[in-house]
Design goal:
445 residues, alpha/beta, globular, UROD/MetE-like_sf, Uroporphyrinogen decarboxylase (URO-D) domain-containing protein
Length: 445
């Protein structure tokens, strides 16, 4: 059978209809692609040389519906120029996250008062030692880092468009996607560190809750893209939920995250959540999120996830990537059948693995391709086009009241004073440059 287009598969499922067959979304990261092509990881990380050939070879071999290669191509030049304390570039070319404290426990009140200003004045110089210098040198370093960031962004964007068009892969419209963390995870991963946030949960939990709420305007600035589209999404990797007590999840972690997701939904933006670790005890919380929210599960009971979420939300993940390394090809295919039989009926299912591989060595590529080919050839629906998510059934989502972002570091908003058309044009354009700079700094955290 033939499909109209790979984009149509995702358009159908995102609009709440049953697609012609189960869409497939799986990615080999930059490092795995470079390794497959036999190139130097260090050289490719720094220059991007060879990336197009490596990506092209794998795009021909891997028959997914979304782009099967790349993703978050981290740029070591930006980390080196800024002297990042949060990411370390190893001699082998890999980039590792380091636990780093950029907010001290006695500073919560100041942070809560204005998180954005605190980020600019305290967090960034502590995270990026290259910015902890005089104004002239700081300007020069920022200019270099911005040049490196934008150069790589252009390279990745052009290559993605070229390969997407060549092979017909689904790619979200430009400017329709964003990547942010849950407020609690931003605090734990990049401000307080794992030890710090764990200690704060015992000593000053109320400060964490206040800080999470205070972060919402800042996170909305980052997470609500300019070109909102049903084909785009805001991706939120959820980290700490699986490592904290249920009462801390309920009282501190969840409230700000739920408000954030609901606010974006009310402004046309759907969220895609990567539920790291085991979320089985929190399925009822996830159910309460707006209809059509997209979940990628790492671990869990597929049948219970389907029964709880399958009529209201979109499910993916769960297939254990490690299985591809240890099992025979037929057993890998049989495992895919198990998940498909549970998760595909009724639609609202995108096939993917529980995570993307860290390296080519973590999978058997032949098994990886065999599983994807099986799904592409054997998951056709006989009732394509039927309603899969009845949004009317779930009613409207009340939009949370969240204060506007107030900071002296972003372009002034002209909306509350008399303006001319040119003022509004200027404001929008200058805001775009604000966003570009903040993306460079905050995506480098």
């Amino acid at each position: 059978m033939m499909i109209n287009s790979k984009t149509e598969l995702f358009k159908s499922i995102y609009e709440g209809r049953i697609p012609e067959r189960v869409p497939i979304s799986a990615k080999l990261p930059f490092e795995a692609c470079i390794d497959y092509a036999g190139l130097s990881t260090v050289k490719a990380q720094w220059t991007f040389e060879g990336a197009e050939d490596a990506y092209d070879i794998l795009c021909r071999k891997i028959h997914t519906d979304a782009m099967p290669v790349g993703g978050e191509e981290k740029n070591p030049a930006v980390f080196k120029i800024l002297d990042s304390q949060g990411y370390q570039v190893t001699s082998s070319g890999s980039i590792q996250h380091s636990d780093c404290v950029t907010l001290f426990s006695e500073e919560y009140d100041r942070f809560i008062e204005n998180p954005m200003d605190f980020f600019m004045e305290k967090v960034l110089p502590r995270m990026f030692k290259g910015l902890d210098c005089d104004a002239a040198q700081r300007s020069f370093i920022l200019a270099k880092a911005s040049t490196a960031f934008n150069e790589r962004a252009v390279q990745v964007g052009q290559l993605t468009q070229k390969l997407g068009k060549k092979y017909g892969f689904f790619t979200p419209p430009a400017g329709s996607s964003a990547v942010v963390r849950a407020p609690f995870d931003l605090l734990g991963d990049f401000l307080r560190g794992f030890k710090g946030i764990s200690s704060d949960l015992r000593r000053i939990p109320e400060k964490i809750g206040m800080a999470c709420d205070a972060l919402l305007p800042f996170q909305i600035f980052r997470g609500l893209p300019q070109n909102v589209s049903v084909l785009g999404s805001t991706f939120i990797p959820l980290h700490f939920a699986g490592y904290i007590r249920p009462k801390d999840f309920e009282n501190i972690y969840w409230p700000s995250l739920k408000k954030f997701i609901e606010y974006l939904y009310c402004h046309g933006q759907v969220c895609q959540l990567f539920c790291e670790n085991d979320w089985m005890r929190y399925l009822d919380y996830l159910y309460e999120l707006p209809p059509g929210t997209r979940f990628i599960f790492e671990y869990g009971d597929a049948q219970k996830i389907k029964d709880t979420l399958g009529k209201k939300h979109i499910i993916s993940g769960l297939y254990p990537l490690t299985y591809l390394k240890t099992a025979t090809k037929q057993k890998c295919i049989d495992k895919a059948k198990e998940y498909i039989d549970i998760l595909a009926p009724g639609g609202n299912y995108i096939f993917s693995f529980d995570k993307n591989p860290l390296s080519l060595n973590s999978i058997n590529l032949e098994n990886y391709i065999a599983v994807i080919d099986y799904v592409a050839e054997n998951t056709w629906y006989t009732n394509a086009g039927e309603l899969a998510i009845d949004r009317k059934r779930y009613g409207t989502v009340a939009c949370p009241e969240i204060p506007e972002l107030k900071t002296k570091y972003l372009e002034n908003d002209f909306s509350e004073r008399d303006t001319t058309d040119i003022d509004e044009v200027m404001s929008r354009q200058l805001r775009k440059y604000d966003t570009v700079l903040m993306n460079m700094l905050l995506r480098s955290l």
